[in-house]
Amino acid sequence: MFRRPAPLITAGLFTAALSVGATGWATSTQALTDAGILGAVATVPLLYWVMITRTHQITDDQLAEAHQAGYVLALHHVARGLLVPDPAPPTPGHHQDDEQTPGNVVHLRHRPTYTTEEKRTAQ
User: Fold this and answer.
1) How far apart are CA 118 and CA 101, in angstroms?
2) How much is the pTM?
C-alpha cells in the first residue's frame, strides 16, 4: 500500500531538503543550511529502500515473464509432439542399419566373462 507513493514522497523530501539547504547557503543562514543537510542525509536511507524495492519488483516481473514464456514453450512442444506420429517401434532381435549414430561414440566390444575355473584352464 505504501510502495506506490513512496518514490514520489522520498524524491519530494530529498528535493525539499536540498532546496532548504541551498536557500540557507545562498542567504548565509547557518540554521537553514544545517536543516537542509540534515534533511538530505535523513532521506538517503529512504532513497536506498525505494531503489532496492524497485529492483526486487523488476526482478520479480522478469522472473514471472520468463516462467510464462517457458510454460508457453513447453505447451508448444507438447502440442507438436502429440501431432507428430511416432516412428514404428523396432522389432526385437533385428538390428536396424539405417539408424544414425553420432560420430563421437566409441563402441566397446563386449568380452565374454569367464568363471574362475575357466580362467585357470585358459592359462
Assistant:
1) 36
2) 0.45
- Residue 58 CA to residue 103 CA, distance in Å, equals 45
**Contact of 20 with 39, CB cutoff 8 Å:** yes
Rounded-to-integer distance, Cα 116 and Cα 63, Å: 61
- For the CA atoms of 82, 86, 92, 96, the dihedral, rounded to the nearest 10 degrees, stands at -150
The Cβ of residue 58 has, within 10 Å, a number of other Cβ atoms equal to 10
CA 83 to each of CA 76, 77, 78, 86: distance values in angstroms, whole numbers, following the listed order: 11, 10, 9, 9
pLDDT of residue 1: 46
pLDDT along the chain (123 residues), means of 10: 72 91 92 92 90 84 86 80 60 60 59 60 59
Cα–Cα distances in angstroms (integers) from residue 48 to residues 7, 13, 19, 21, 40, in the given order: 10, 14, 20, 21, 13
Q: Is the dihedral of CA 99, 100, 103, 105 positive or negative?
A: negative
DSSP 84: S
